[in-house]
Amino acid sequence: MSDTVLDLPLQYLKGVGPRKAADLKKAGLLSVDDLLFRFPLRYEDRSRLQPIVSLKPGETAAVAGEVLHASLTPTRRPGFRLFTALVEDASGQVQAVWPNQAFLKDVIRAHDDIVLFGKVEYWGSRGLQMTDPEFEILRPPPRDGSAGPGDAHDEPETLHTGRIVPIYERTGSVTTNMQRRMVWQALERLPPTLVDPLPVDLREREGWPSRREALIATHFPPPDTPIDALNAFATPAQRRLIFEDFFVFQAGLALRRQQNAAVTKSRVPVVDDRVRQAARAVLPFKLTAGQRQALAEIVADMQKPWPMQRLLQGDVGAGKTIVALVAALVAMENGFQVAFMAPTEILAEQHVGTLARWLTGTRFRVALLSGKVGSAGRRTLLPAIERGDIHCLVGTHALVQDPVVFHSLALVVIDEQHRFGVRQRGLLAGKGVSPDVLVMTATPIPRTLALTTYGDLEVSVIRGLPPGRRPVRTLVKPDSRRDEVHALVRDHITSGRQAYVIYPLVAESEKVDLQAATEAADHLARHVFPELRVALLHGRMKGDEKDRVMREFAAGQIHILVSTTVVEVGVDVANAAIMVIEHAERFGLSQLHQLRGRVGRGPHDSTCVLLYQAPWSDEARERLRAMVETSDGFVIAERDLQLRGPGDFFGTRQSGVPQLRAGDLTRDADLLERAHEAARRFVEDDMLTAEEKGYVHAVWQRQFGMVAVG
To answer: What percent of the chain lies above the pLDDT cut of 90?
Structure first.
């Protein structure tokens, strides 16, 4: 039996007109398949009917009875009316009230049998009342007494009450009740068997229900299903569908890996004694064990006949750049070019300076291509790149936006990869002939995100800090103790150190935040530290002005740098030993950790002060507590994922986090791990059927098509 019902557009369901279809489309719901894989937000047990006499104010209850009378009555507020119904069972009476819902006069009538579900309140002389309750008019049940989805009956005796009821998130004009009806209709139209993307032996080993049974039990659970298990999304039916969601995605990634391995490079670099000696000659210090391990994995990939696709993770200051330099040296010693893309001009310029310094004395030329390189500079630079005279090109988005033609691009290094869209990474890789791709991040990525966002890449991790890096003391202070913080800043500066003062900058209030940072810099310079030099740095400054400020700060000519988060990535001033983060309660946890990484980069004791303003939320309190408790970026990343969820982990939806339908990366981490292992095994051993591969391909085309690198 085909799955054409699942492919049906939602407009084919009864009651779904153009407006509702448009609202559903905005939520990513286009087909019956999309609808059925959108889990309820929660479940309510409305099956236990109480006698009306047992109702108590403040409780949420379900009752059934006869409507004695119903009426629409005006109120003192013009145009505002109440629809009321007096409902009676064998034990007593209760009044139900629906504010401003005049249409109910044509729906609920005297002598109707009705089920109500809602909150019970006490209204003085009116006694007990249920305000705006969910309701169901009882109708004769089907002849055979059944009322389950998939049967030939339009709707059960009760759909919104008298059962365990799924509660869906409202979508525009589509209410939870409307979605419940739509889901019921869709389930009724399912054929007896469905194409199942989970291999048979996998389903049998896990003891999971069929796909059809799981869909029905997830949306309309049997009456004996534990409500706590449902709301924890831990029933066999729910977990089976969550596993399927993960498995299909992971199978797609595994197939992509297989495709990558089928592509051959035009030339493979050789690592011999000459290359090893060249690497030793440029290394400014001895690599740590973590750096050596990561480098060995990267170089081993570079020597394979297919292109490398590898993610290099390391905490702030872990020494990823030196590892990337040695990898670049391997490529360049073999006659290839390297492209190094950074997210900001500041970071790109820093990389150019660092790489050029390390490569001093070698024959290799490093050049910068960014928005600041004028047309005259481009006329000289672009032909040199095409001839192969530039061996390592460092740049920003200009690397993909400009008509850059490489002579022999073999290695692409992308720093702070989460700041680039997938398309930009692919365009840069496309400027070579199947080049190796190394993406790096100083934002440690929790394993669940690494298995999804970067699941088609191999992963290398540098743990620990290079020799000489010192831990940073972190303090949390209320705004009322600002004088203490200023005294601490003065102590550091008196000792010969420098300071950062960081202000938040968010899109919604950018002008207000920028004004606050500007006023703060002026206040500090005039009234708090008049004897010191205070400067301001922010993203709206002209490039030359930003360069001047950063050069002067790096040279020690500026004592206090007041800045927005433009310093979050890449700014490296070893003498800066104290950072004050204003409005710390407004920052994400990973961003706070990134900012803190700008201090403690030299041999001096360093401090980060998180200054907050009350009132602050419980979540903000948890974030700042985590900053004090640990400096391990991987621990912080896991905490940040738990607090913010996967969609906002990087602070941007551009990051390529896949929009899974049923799976939750924090709640369902165990299922993700199992799905990852199972999918790789089934793909590598070629155990997926043609039908299963076809389903995976179709879902990837529709749902995950842009989640890839290179």
So the answer is: 38
Structure tokens given for 554 = 């790096």
Interatomic CA distance for residues 162 and 266, integer angstroms: 67
Residue 470 phi, psi dihedral angles, 5° rounding: -110, 145
Per DSSP, which regions of 174-234 are E strands? none
For CA atoms 80, 86, 87, 92, give the dihedral sign.
positive
Residue 183 structure tokens: 């889901």
- The full set of domains in the chain, from first to last, is 4-45+163-232 (no CATH), 52-137 (2.40.50.140), 273-462 (3.40.50.300), 472-630 (3.40.50.300)
- Helix 211-219 to helix 236-262 angle, to the nearest 10 degrees? 130
Query: At 60, which amino acid appears?
Result: T
- pLDDT > 80? residue 550: yes
Instruction: Report which DSSP code applies to 525.
Output: I
DSSP state, 191? -
Q: Which of 226-235, 268-277, 467-476 has the lowest mean pLDDT?
A: 467-476
Q: Write down the pLDDT at residue 651.
A: 44
Q: Helices 320-333 and 273-282: crossing angle, nearest 10°?
A: 140
Write down the pTM of the prediction. Answer: 0.69
Residue corresponding to tokens 């009456």: 223
- Residue 244 is which amino acid? E
Listed residue (362, 396, 419) closest to 650, CA to CA: 419
215-219, 325-329, 672-676: the lowest-pLDDT one: 672-676
Nearest by Cα to 366 from 377, 375, 354: 354
Residue 606 — very low, low, confident or very high, per pLDDT cuts 50/70/90? very high
At residue 142, the pLDDT reads 44
Mind listing the pLDDT tens digit for each residue in 609-623? Answer: 999 988 888 888 999
Can you tell me the distance from the alpha carbon of 446 to that of 645, in angstroms, rounded to the nearest whole number? 11
With contact defined as beta carbons under 8 Å apart, do 708 and 260 qualify?
A: no
pLDDT in tens, 649-679: 444 344 455 677 888 888 898 999 999 999 9
Give the containing element (helix H, strand E) for 66: strand 60-74
Which three-class secondary structure string do you get for 8-53?
A: CEHHHCCCCCHHHHHHHHHCCCCEHHHHHCCCCCEEEECCCECCHH
What is the β-pairing status of strands 606-612 and 576-581?
A: parallel
Whether 302 shows a pLDDT value over 80: the answer reads yes
- In the numeric block, the tokens 């919104």 are attached to 160
CA atoms within 13 A on the CB side of 463: 4
Distances (CA, A) of 172 to 27, 37, 102, 264, 676: 9, 19, 21, 49, 35
State the Cα–Cα distance between residues 543 and 367, nearest whole angstrom.
18
DSSP string, 466-515: -TT--PEEEEEEEGGGHHHHHHHHHHHHHTT-EEEEE----GGGHHHHHH
